[in-house]
Amino acid sequence: MKRILLLFLLATSIFTSCKTSQHSSSKSSENVVNITFLHLNDVYEISPLEGGKVGGMARLGTLRKELIQKNPNTVTILAGDFLNPSLIATFKYEGKSIKGRQMVEAMNAVGFDWVGLGNHEFDIDEADLQRRIDESQFNWLASNAFQNNKGTLTPFTKNVNGTKIPFPKTTILTFKNTAGKVVKMGMFSVVLPSNQKDYVHYDDFFESAKQAYEVLKPQCDFVVGITHINKVDDAKLAKLLPDVKLLMGGHDHDNMLFKEGNVIIAKADANAKTAYVHNLSFYTQTKSLEINSELRKINEQIKDDAEVALVVKKWEEIMDVAMKKAGLDKNDVVTEISTPLDGRESTMRNGHTNLGDLIAKAMSAAATKPVDCTVFNSGSVRIDDQLIGKITQLDIMRVLPFGGKIVEVNLTGSLLDKILATGLQNKGNGGFLQWDKISYDENKKQWLINGKLLDINQDYHVMMPKFLIEGKETNFGYLTAQNPGVKGIVESDEKDVNDIRNDIRKVLIAYLKK
Which keywords belong to this entry (predicted)? Predict the structure, then answer.
């Protein structure tokens, strides 16, 4: 009996040893291919923000080099929105509009590998977009956005030494480890159709992603996506494609990391305040994948990369010259404040801030006659920063890089009610409204204008950006001069250089200087 028990224990020991050995073998370094993604999205500024404390392309250059040193299989991607908007992009250099040229040069210096299209890439005209594409040294991926030439749809292209290289719908990247083991990763990229231009055609991004996945999956070990869509749509896409491993997203400007089923969805903070580092480990024997994602703060603890810093300095100096030519003095102190003015997109697009209140009050003060209220879209503020201390003309230009005219509009109460409701509906995006002389009773669901209940049967005199009354903001397509609820529009003469209403930035500067 003892002999039988001994043989049983010996057999069990051998079995356990073999099982452990097999498990260890599958996990050994020679059977693992590691891949690293440095993932950013919605980057509009090449220089650091918040007084130099956060962000900055030169710091990204350093981080990228550190990651490559640890793992040569490092891919740096930007999930859309980088060519526009920014203050410097509104100026000219060498006789041509800058329109994102500074960003492409900085990204080339950093060493970006792949980008997806964002909706703001299509803010600039077709010729300028083509110039930026041709200047880029990185790859572009576009699964659902195509160039529309009078109804003929073709992929966007990059001109390389006289040859037009089409943007691929999908790509397969091959990685090896030191033992020579290989893994193939498929990748697609989709963008939401929020910026309709004649030269752009958008296919449905859900269907395009599905088709891309079906093409990729038979050819590779796993698939990831670059997305520039709303987070709710990222979640829907994950449900549609439950075997996609990672969606590296953009469009939302706040960092997030969540799972929908087994799909990991990640987005970093806008303007390179943070970046996601995704470490992927693929086990070649078991064909399994592990993903560990780390949010890295881009701040003063990261030193500038010297090469990228030179590019950034070049464009900062170009902007200085351009501002002087435009009659602006970047060092002119407009006012000095002790309480920070909050222009961060994460707050302005979700609630009301003191900076939003200040801009709205300045607009009200610029009216030709007293207004009942003022509204403006949070998306017109692009500084994504807090201001404190001495506030200069440069700060104001960074706050409102688009500029633009403000107008006085006579509206019916019913249309004003609809406008305010749409503003609430737009919470989280640039169509969320900031205002003056308006309050909202959340419990009673009632609007108050100048302390009195909004009367849908009364007409109101309202100040707003011309951009809004042209129906260009998200969900505001109905708000045009042709709407029956619009009773009249009072606007300034564009040729009158002394009328501050022609530029909201001058309106704010004048108000602060009083």
Answer: Hydrolase, Nucleotide-binding, Signal
- 219/184 Cα distance (integer angstroms): 8
Which CATH number is 285's domain given?
3.60.21.10
Q: How many domains does the chain have?
A: 2
pLDDT for 46 equals: 96
Beta bridge partner(s), residue 185: 173, 222
In a domain, 338, yes or no: yes
Q: Of 280-284, 321-325, 437-441, 500-504, which gets the smallest average pLDDT? A: 321-325
347 and 231 housed in the same domain? no
Asked if 247 and 206 touch (Cβ cutoff 8 Å), the reply is no
Q: Inter-axis angle of helices 354-365 and 504-513, to 10 degrees?
A: 90
Has residue 180 been placed in a domain?
A: yes
- Which residues partner with 92 through β-bridges? 97
Tens digits of residue pLDDT in 446-469: 999 999 999 999 999 999 999 999
Record the pTM. 0.79
Can you read off the two tokens belonging to residue 120?
């703001």
Find the domain containing 113 and state its range. Answer: 28-297
User: Angle of helix 306-325 relative to helix 101-110, nearest 10 degrees?
Assistant: 170
Domain membership of residue 186 (yes or no) is: yes
- pLDDT, tens digit (0-9, with 9 covering 90-100), for 148-170: 999 999 999 999 999 999 999 99
What Cα–Cα distance (Å) separates residue 301 from each residue in 53, 56, 261, 393? 9, 12, 36, 29
Residues 246 and 149 in one domain: yes
Spell out the residues 6+ positions from residue 90 whose beta carbon is closer than 8 angstroms to its own: 98, 401, 402, 403
What is the distance between the alpha carbons of residues 470 and 34, in angstroms, rounded to a whole number? 50
- CATH code assigned at 435: 3.90.780.10
How far apart (Å, rounded) are the C-alpha atoms in residues 242 and 213? 11
Whether residue 201 has pLDDT greater than 60: yes
Within its chain, how far is the Cα of 212 from the centroid?
A: 23
Residues 281 and 356 in one domain: no
The whole-angstrom separation of Cα 190 and Cα 209 is: 7
CA–CA distance, 156 with 133 (Å, rounded to integer): 9
Residue that has been written with the tokens 């881009």 in this structure = 298
Which secondary structure element, helix H or strand E, spans residue 288, and what is its range?
strand 288-297
Residue 88 in contact with residue 317, Cβ under 8 Å? no
Q: Are residues 402 and 483 in the same domain?
A: yes
Residue type, 381: V
